[in-house]
Automatic annotation (TrEMBL):
<dbReference type="InterPro" id="IPR010043">
    <property type="entry name" value="UTase/UR"/>
</dbReference>
<comment type="function">
    <text>Modifies, by uridylylation and deuridylylation, the PII regulatory proteins (GlnB and homologs), in response to the nitrogen status of the cell that GlnD senses through the glutamine level. Under low glutamine levels, catalyzes the conversion of the PII proteins and UTP to PII-UMP and PPi, while under higher glutamine levels, GlnD hydrolyzes PII-UMP to PII and UMP (deuridylylation). Thus, controls uridylylation state and activity of the PII proteins, and plays an important role in the regulation of nitrogen metabolism.</text>
</comment>
<dbReference type="InterPro" id="IPR002912">
    <property type="entry name" value="ACT_dom"/>
</dbReference>
<keyword id="KW-0511">Multifunctional enzyme</keyword>
<protein>
    <recommendedName>
        <fullName>Bifunctional uridylyltransferase/uridylyl-removing enzyme</fullName>
        <ecNumber>2.7.7.59</ecNumber>
        <ecNumber>3.1.4.-</ecNumber>
    </recommendedName>
</protein>
<dbReference type="InterPro" id="IPR002934">
    <property type="entry name" value="Polymerase_NTP_transf_dom"/>
</dbReference>
<dbReference type="Pfam" id="PF08335">
    <property type="entry name" value="GlnD_UR_UTase"/>
</dbReference>
<dbReference type="GO" id="GO:0006808">
    <property type="term" value="P:regulation of nitrogen utilization"/>
</dbReference>
<comment type="similarity">
    <text>Belongs to the GlnD family.</text>
</comment>
<keyword id="KW-0548">Nucleotidyltransferase</keyword>
<dbReference type="InterPro" id="IPR045865">
    <property type="entry name" value="ACT-like_dom_sf"/>
</dbReference>
<dbReference type="InterPro" id="IPR013546">
    <property type="entry name" value="PII_UdlTrfase/GS_AdlTrfase"/>
</dbReference>
<dbReference type="GO" id="GO:0008081">
    <property type="term" value="F:phosphoric diester hydrolase activity"/>
</dbReference>
<dbReference type="Pfam" id="PF01909">
    <property type="entry name" value="NTP_transf_2"/>
</dbReference>
<feature type="domain" description="ACT">
    <location>
        <begin position="781"/>
        <end position="852"/>
    </location>
</feature>
<dbReference type="InterPro" id="IPR003607">
    <property type="entry name" value="HD/PDEase_dom"/>
</dbReference>
<keyword id="KW-0677">Repeat</keyword>
Amino acid sequence: MNQQAVTDFTNERQILAKEFKEHSDPFEYLLKHTHAADEAIETICTDNNLSPRIAVVAVGGYGRCELFPFSDLDLLFLLPEDVKDSELKVIEQVLNDLWSLGLTVGHSVRTIDECISQAEEDITAQTAMLESRFLMGDADLYKKYTERMEVQLNFVDFFRAKFIEQQQRHLRFQETTYALEPNIKESPGGLRDLHIVTWILKAAYLDAAKKNKEIPSLLTNYEQTKIHEDMKTLFWLRIHVHLLVNRHEDRLLFEIQESLAKELGFKADADRRASEKLMQQYYAVASSIELLNDVILQALKEHFVSVTKQKGVSIGNGFLVKGDVLDTENENFYQNDPAMLLMPFVLATEHREINKFSTTIHRAYGNLDKRIPDNFASLDEVKSSFLKILKAKKGVYHCLKEMNKLGILSKLIPPFGRIVGQLQHDLFHAYTVDQHTILAISYLRRFTKSENAHEMPLMTELMMSLEDNWRLVAALLFHDIGKGRGGDHSRIGAEEVKIFAKSYNLTPEETDYIEFLVREHLTMSRVAQKQDISDPEVIKKFAEKVVSLDRLTGLYLITVADIRATGPKVWNSWKAKLLEELFYATANFLQGKSLSKTMLVNNRREDVLKAGNFNAKEKEKLEQFWEDFDVGYFMRHSVDNILWQSKELLEHMDRKSSYVIYRPVKGLPNAYEVVVLTEDRNELFARIVSTFQSYRLSILEARIYTGKTGRVLDHFVVIDNNLNSSSEEKFEELKADLINRLDNQLPLQPPIKGRLSRHSKNFPITPEVQLRVDAGGSHYLLSVAATDRLGILATIARVFIEFKINLITARIATLGERIEDVFVIKNPRLADPQFAAEFETALLKILELRPS
């Protein structure tokens, strides 16, 4: 091995990295880095006496002269048909030496025939040819390779394969440009989207040359300029990421975003972090690339295979429909009348056959800032068209999504521009504010389609029965528009609604309705997940805020859409059940059908006894058991749940020892209900939750009931985090272990220090502890909010033991990666301010996240 070649290459890389940080010219860096690698490879091949009959070819990013600091060195060793074993052994030695350069070496060793055969099976081989670059060896062999591969190339097949490949890649990234940790290379709007365009354009021109055809330029001057600018920005960003983490990393990870932003010169201000400004710039570039990719691929499709070659059917205003494509007879259709800019979207909502716009229309929206007047949003015709789109029966979501992508939505609603590409630093949202907003509208509009009724039938029924349901679309457009400004974003959004409503001449009733939904869009979720919705007083207060069934229905629908659009892991059947129960209870109250606590409890007990077909002796036993517990138990559990518990516990109600039952939770993967029947004792809660943590179970909900005679009935919903073991066997083992630990008073296990997700580490929640005396004056309400982690409840229970706190009831709520727990506790010393302060301080101390 030539150590000098390795040393020279290493030194050159260090020099290039230093120069790049000083001058930040990505094209110069990549070219010089590629050239340095070329020299090192040539030296190593020469020193190993690589046969001159072999052609060494650079492929992939290296072939494109895009060698990033830690990119792979992708090489093709092109062999003669009569290659000798001795020549192959030299290639092995060359590859061993190349790894000493400090980069990953990707390679293939093939004859031309093998390359052709590979290309027939895998389109990637044809892509490799399009970006291949001769390095050394047999130049004639390389020429034969390219000539035969070009003959082999079928443009239509290549286009189709690359298009499908892109679709599959986008699906892997949830088809969003606005992921919170985007991959600069692979995400939609990343470098690969530009590569796809480049490859297909090359293939198109090669195909035309092969057939002696001339094809016009398929890119406008504006598109060529934008491709160059956007590519330069992503090259610049990707080089910086590699150098910052000192490895091959193409993701803009949470943990590097802030340090990267500061290194690149972004500065924080009162409203936004430096990382938010960096990411907003990235999203703008990625969105531009995504749009360029769409337009250019469609232009290619139209030129070679599209129905837009047809004459088309005129639908007025200079527009015509060709198949499912809307086209225009005038490429400057809104130049003299800016209001016409929205006409394609209006037509798309009026004509069911329209699924997409032609390249001509898309290109008309390019460089929009310089094409429309400053008073665009205030033009009456523009406002009339926008309202038509919002009120349309079809295509609303797709139009708004496209309008956001093109930058039109921000022109119509200027405050919306502030949330485009804006990160959300919390543990809930998986998307930027604008993408979350558009996605929420998507979920809402799904409720208008009968084909989706099987998914959420109640939502569909309510949406279809609600008059003027366009008001909900408007509310979702504004529900998060106040984020990033400081203060209550719900109230800021409500104020923006007033401005919009006045400008668009909405009626007072429409304005009031939309403003209410925006101002209160978080209320229903908070009540359902944080308050005891089995309490008639809670329902009464919520109903008094909502006022009408029309408002309740709208709030319910946008709440569900909002939560579902937050992230793929946030919505579940548990939240759906809570919201549905709150909706029905409030609807009954508003319609004068509410029941008192006593009536609710009596009805529930009667329903359980009827459904269970119990005999007289069993009924008497159940009634006696139930008398031990207060109304909370019956109000917080459904008839089905109480019936299950009653049947399973009936034979064990008189026993002094503990008993445990469990069952899977319907509709919530890997979740189980666990009920513990036992006698009250010291450290009981701590023993139960510490046992759960030892089985790697996360507690989603806990309800503690202590009877008048000292009997305890504790109900938990837990998530099994270890999917490698059989859940049935695991829970049988847990059942026996839990009974043993409780009845034999085994020593408490130390709390597990659960690992935090990367998201939690980078967006930690500031712990909050609030202690206040309840209305009766004998108990205290303890509210705790913090970042969730395995074992956190067991850790809290340890503090209870330390301060001799008696737990009466608990309501445990896990919202994404955030816990919001409420405990009813008792200890006479809590009346002492100093003792209470020490207790709260101890809780805050164990809830704080410390670097590991």
